[in-house]
Amino acid sequence: MRGEVRARRLRDTPAPPLDLVGVQIPYHFRCPISLELMRDPVTVSTGQTYDRPSIESWFAMGNTTCPVTRCPLPDFTVIPNHTLRRLIQEWCVAHRSDGVERIPTPKQPADPTLVRLLLAQASADDASLSSRIAALRRLRALACESEKNRAVVSTYTRSAIAEMAFGADLDLAVGAMEALAVVGVTERESAMVAARPERVALLAGMIRLESSAEARIGAATLVEGMRTAEAREAVGAADGVIEGLVALVENGDSRAVRAGMRGLFSLCLAKENRGRAVMAGAAEAVVRRIGEMHCVERGDLERALATVELLCRVEGGREAVVAVEGAVADLVRAMTGKATERAAEHAAGALVAVVGGSEALQEEAVAAGVVTQLLLMVQSGCSDRARRKAQMLLKILRPAWPMQDLFANSDDFLHPF
Known about the structure:
Layout: H1 2-12, E1 19-20, E2 23-24, E3 41-43, E4 49-51, H2 52-60, E5 79-80, H3 82-94, H4 112-123, H5 129-145, H6 147-164, H7 170-183, H8 187-194, H9 197-207, H10 213-224, H11 229-237, H12 241-251, H13 254-268, H14 271-279, H15 282-290, H16 298-311, H17 317-322, H18 327-333, H19 341-355, H20 359-367, H21 370-379, H22 384-397
Antiparallel strand pairs: 1-2, 3-4, 3-5
């Protein structure tokens, strides 16, 4: 209903004059939705032209009609209006002396027809190896240009590229795995790998491959996509998989570190893999990176802290974390500032295991300011699980808490409400 009212207003009400730095914008250069100068004009099936961001937002709101004509749209295809864009650019240039800036030529989304042609070239068994690899690289480059391109390329090519990543030719497999690092995978592609031991072995080899960091990231992306306990256990048990992920975390760039972290987290959700991960040095590798993760996507920090908490629960995990200099301070720091509730919860859970039984580590945690953070958690209305972990840690730290006498007659912070 609201969409119809907006459409009627667009159709029946003349738009007021719109001035840009004192220069009136021609009516046909303005988007009927935003009333602003169009920077990327596109035309829908009714023949009406809109600025691309405006019409895409209209569609995203669930509308299925043309905003101006109110006619139903058979599809949501939009066609770039190159002629109008050039006219707008010429008008901007003509009014440059008035302070009007020329609109840049927008990059167009990947053409599905081109994507399909490149995929056919990459998949053609009778084509030369060099042309097939070149097609994969072109697909990868398209996906890298924008999020829209990545979605288009992924939709049409993901499953086929995943198949090529496990073909007989290593160079083609590397090219396909490099493409997967950008295109991404779904649970379906990961399950196809986990179900076949020979593919799991090839995946392990790809993760250890030193010649291509992108292929290793693509392989780690496949590992991250494992969703069942059986798949995670099968992949984690393969020789070299966990070791390769640890190497990515220890020695990779920021993208490689994130991919390795996500892969390790996925595998450590299976209990059988946690001991293997500790033996491979995963606990130390992840803890050393936590201090660098405050500016990354919040989900990555949450996964890293959850991995540490899981590894602290198995033999050797706590000792591995304690052996890292500054580990306690980094875990406390991960609870501060703009940390999410989940990040704070996992950090508290890890600290319960790490500082328990060590007065020196308890004092270190208190000195790092953990008590204040824990009190804030308990009072903040966080989840019951997070509150229980915070209360447990407060109890452990009570002997090292300088202000404990102030709360000698109150257990409000140490027991559930």
